[in-house]
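User: quick one
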Amino acid sequence: GENVEQHPSTLSVQEGDSAVIKCTYSDSASNYFPWYKQELGKGPQLIIDIRSNVGEKKDQRIAVTLNKTAKHFSLHITETQPEDSAVYFCAASKGQAGTALIFGKGTTLSVSS
Amino acid sequence: NAGVTQTPKFQVLKTGQSMTLQCAQDMNHEYMSWYRQDPGMGLRLIHYSVGAGITDQGEVPNGYNVSRSTTEDFPLRLLSAAPSQTSVYFCASMRSSSGNTIYFGEGSWLTVV
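Assistant: Done. Structure below.
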């Protein structure tokens, strides 16, 4: 079945540094790749997404890159702040319809000041 | 997570009991889905629906039933609860024309003893 691998599982950085989280997916038909941030006791919150016809997308300090040939995509956070500390999940759409998502196992990001 | 409402927020069940987790959305979204989240496992797709009267299985469907009699509601039923079903459950919805942006509810914490 479809699978999404996410690395690293934990990431610790100093405030102001950059953080990179990488994911690979198996379903060639996937065409939508969102990233979610989850804080303790809450549901996942969409922070950025990218579609298969785009190679890179930026939103202030957050960027996502996609390599469809290699089936991998990455989240880049620059100038990290303590409030960026959370669990981050990547996901890939289940087929082209995108009606549901297959998630990676998550990355716990800790930003120390 | 405005628009996706899950009830109950917390529930304790005895092994063998049955219950239904309710999910409702008021955004007229065609697509709805259920996920479970376990420590270290990320979110895993249980069942999903592309419209009223249509449901399909996800990654981990065993032990769960769903139905979609209306566009607004997508209940998840546990017919005979097992300790392995102790988890946090998230409902999600998406408008088919929204470009795959999926919105999550706040979660339902279920413990089976």
